[in-house]
Write a sequence for this structure.
């Protein structure tokens, strides 16, 4: 045991001098240390109190080797206090990380042991707490102290490449020492203890092409001018060894796959110097007639090839492009081939790289040249027309069978070929190719005929050619000109002499080659007219000009002016049109004010039917307004037949002669003799009273014998009354009696229906008026309009 402790002290002195202060004491790892400590209670149970005592033991840390493989528990160290006199009165306790499970302590001696093997990479240290207590009373003799047990590292982990295997790339033809990549190995051992984590790199496989830095792990190229076209992929094996690479160290390896990336260090090369191609003469322009290829050992964009035709013989007939997928040169036909003209073409093609690397210009020119020979093959061809298209002119109404032109087609392999027409208006000679009319042509119906002429090979009818022929039908002067439109012309009554009142133009169905040309004039040139004349402006228009002023509609409303129109054809045709001129009223600036209905409305685009519809609508509106006003008036004045309060009798007239004075015996004429019934402000009951009507003032007649005079006055008054109804009626006038204290009680004398009166005096007239007083008393209280008629 003493040897083991001495070995531990020696190792601690070598590697951790700064943490070995506790190892200064007696053998057996007893580390008493005098230091002022906390207060402790008396041991023998004396007076209880706190006093300052000296701590008898202090320690910092212990060490235990990892991966211990012995059969007995591994001894860690010993705890001891100066209070322990060896009489077994002191008990040592242990708590903290692993206390009781990993670490155990002898309570009497204070020896600490590790019960199982420890791994520093799992847990590098353990923190525990120790205390010395009285074995009998379990009372602490010293304050609890904390210490650390460190797991001493051994070289039990090899370096590992956590990210391997690796992949890297470096350009081909790189110089020696070109950086490739850096690898790093990780060792789980303690880098602060010995050389267990000190890693050294070396290359096991991959020399002499690459090298590795033993300290940093940087991989670089070791050979110059490594060619990708010779070898592209290299596999390098790197080793990382701990203990500084010494014997006994642990090692780990990884693989690195290094690829040489391509650079443009190879020019394109043709596989042969001469390419032979055969092309039929019938090949279409723009079609591919052959393919050639220059091979480039590079890849990607470094292998892209551009092809060009070297100027020279045959180069103008062909063109060449590059196929982007396989880098082939495609030869295209630029112009038609003709075996009878030329049977062979020879030219040179140059192939070069599109992307050059200036570092390799000293390798030589990065291009190659090859010769291309093309032989034209003869094929059976269709006939060929002398022109790509034909145009012919013919006048309309040309007699049938007239030759208007000819087309020619030739078989280059033989001779002339027959032709045929595809239009019914024309006919063609199949041998000579002359085209003639088959029908009469009318320019106004079809101004241009587009026909096709087909030429057929004699010995091979399948081979045909077609050409377009355009036939223009020329116009002849067969239609006279006429006015462009029916003009509606008017002249103001205030028009002055020489004033242009209308501008006219003409139209013609013919189409002269030089364009339309018209002239205008009056029918009798040189004869002076009185009212109007035609003035030709020389631009296919003319003006109607007044020769006098002072036009009056009352004198003459309409004038007719003939106009002679001539065209400008070879055979001049003319026609006479008539202008209708109306005389209208105008304002000072010449604007139309009044004229006939047609002259007013037609310029704005209204037809006769529209004018009639407008007038009918106006009449209907007027009738509706008149009916509405009549109905309102009829409702305003109620007639005697519809009035509920009308109590008079109707008089029916039979147109019979009456009996004279004998008729008076049928009536009580005495009722007409009461003069008191006549009062002022009397209103008619057969007509609804209106505001503003003046009340009549009848003349009172108190002479009872003069009844006829009284009736005559009344009759005259009715005949002069403008508010009387339109039918005959009988008005009765009667006296209501004399000597009555209440005078007349008739409602006829009630001028104002809304007048409020006090009827309390009726109660003073006696029992006979009691009922009447009650009725009018209720009316006064309710403020309602009640009319009582007492007869």
């Amino acid at each position: 045991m003493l040897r083991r402790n001495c070995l531990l002290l020696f190792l601690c002195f070598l590697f951790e001098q700064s943490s070995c202060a506790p190892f200064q004491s007696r053998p057996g790892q007893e580390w008493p240390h005098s230091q002022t400590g906390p207060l402790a209670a008396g041991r023998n149970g004396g007076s209880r109190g706190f006093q300052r005592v000296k701590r008898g033991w202090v320690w910092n840390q212990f060490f235990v080797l990892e991966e211990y493989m012995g059969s007995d528990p591994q001894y860690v160290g010993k705890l001891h206090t100066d209070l322990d006199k060896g009489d077994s009165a002191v008990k040592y306790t242990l708590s903290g990380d692993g206390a009781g499970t990993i670490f155990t302590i002898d309570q009497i001696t204070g020896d600490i042991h590790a019960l199982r093997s420890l791994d520093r990479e799992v847990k590098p240290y353990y923190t525990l707490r120790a205390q010395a207590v009285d074995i009998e009373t379990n009372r602490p003799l010293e304050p609890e102290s904390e210490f650390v047990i460190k797991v001493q590292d051994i070289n039990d982990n090899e370096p590992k490449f956590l990210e391997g295997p690796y992949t890297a790339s470096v350009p081909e033809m790189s110089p020696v020492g070109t950086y490739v990549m850096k690898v790093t190995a990780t060792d789980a051992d303690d880098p602060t203890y010995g050389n267990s984590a000190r890693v050294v790199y070396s290359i096991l496989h991959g020399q002499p092409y690459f090298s590795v830095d033993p300290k940093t792990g940087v991989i670089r190229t070791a050979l110059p001018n490594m060619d990708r076209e010779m070898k592209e992929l290299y596999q390098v094996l790197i080793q990382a060894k701990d203990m500084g690479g010494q014997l006994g160290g642990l090692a780990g390896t990884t693989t690195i796959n290094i690829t040489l990336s391509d650079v443009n260090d190879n020019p394109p090369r043709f596989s042969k110097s001469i390419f032979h191609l055969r092309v039929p003469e019938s090949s279409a322009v723009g079609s591919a007639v052959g393919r050639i290829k220059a091979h480039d050992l590079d890849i990607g964009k470094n292998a892209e090839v551009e092809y060009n035709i070297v100027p020279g013989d045959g180069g103008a007939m062909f063109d060449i492009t590059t196929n982007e997928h396989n880098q082939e040169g495609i030869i295209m036909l630029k112009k038609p081939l003709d075996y009878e003209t030329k049977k062979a073409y020879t030219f040179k093609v140059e192939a070069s790289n599109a992307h050059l690397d200036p570092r390799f210009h000293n390798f030589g020119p990065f291009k190659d040249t090859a010769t291309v020979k093309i032989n034209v093959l003869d094929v059976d061809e269709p006939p060929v027309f002398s022109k790509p298209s034909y145009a012919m002119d013919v006048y309309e109404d040309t007699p049938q069978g007239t030759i208007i032109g000819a087309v020619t087609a030739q078989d280059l392999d033989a001779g002339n070929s027959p032709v045929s027409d595809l239009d019914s208006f024309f006919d063609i000679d199949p041998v000579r190719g002359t085209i003639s009319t088959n029908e009469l042509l009318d320019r106004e119906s079809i101004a241009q005929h587009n026909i096709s002429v087909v030429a057929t090979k004699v010995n091979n009818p399948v081979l045909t050619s077609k050409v377009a022929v355009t036939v223009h039908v020329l116009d002849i002067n067969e239609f006279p000109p006429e006015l462009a439109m029916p003009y509606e012309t008017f002249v103001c009554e205030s028009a002055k002499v020489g004033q242009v009142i209308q501008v006219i133009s003409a139209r013609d169905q013919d189409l002269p080659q030089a364009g339309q040309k018209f002239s205008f004039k009056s029918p009798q040139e040189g004869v002076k007219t009185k009212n109007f004349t035609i003035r030709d402006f020389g631009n296919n228009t003319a003006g109607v000009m007044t020769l006098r002023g002072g036009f009056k509609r009352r004198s003459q409303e309409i004038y007719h002016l003939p106009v002679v129109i001539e065209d400008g054809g070879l055979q001049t045709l003319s026609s006479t049109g008539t202008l209708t001129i109306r005389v209208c009223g105008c304002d000072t600036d010449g604007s139309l004010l009044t004229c006939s209905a047609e002259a007013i409305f037609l310029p704005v685009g209204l037809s006769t039917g529209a004018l009639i519809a407008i007038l009918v609508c106006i009449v209907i509106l007027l009738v509706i307004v008149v009916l509405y006003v009549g109905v309102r008036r009829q409702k305003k004045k109620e007639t005697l037949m519809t009035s509920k309060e009308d109590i008079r009798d109707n008089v029916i007239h039979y147109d019979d002669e009456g009996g004279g004075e004998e008729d008076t015996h049928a009536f009580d004429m005495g009722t007409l003799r009461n003069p008191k019934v006549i009062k002022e402000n009397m209103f008619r009951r057969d007509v609804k009273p209106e505001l503003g009507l003046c009340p009549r003032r009848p003349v009172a007649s108190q002479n009872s014998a003069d009844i006829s005079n009284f009736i005559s006055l009344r009759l005259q008054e009715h005949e002069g009354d403008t508010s009387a109804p339109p039918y005959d009626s009988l008005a009765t006038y009667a006296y209501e009696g004399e000597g009555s204290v209440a005078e007349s009680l008739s409602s006829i004398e009630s001028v104002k229906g809304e007048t409020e009166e006090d009827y309390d005096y009726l109660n003073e007239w006696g029992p006979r008026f009691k009922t009447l007083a009650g009725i009018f008393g209720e009316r006064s209280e309710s403020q309602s309009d009640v009319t009582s008629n007492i007869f």
User: Anything to note?
Assistant: The mean pLDDT is 76. The helical segments are 2-15, 597-601, 608-636, 707-719, 770-782. The chain has five helices and 42 strands.
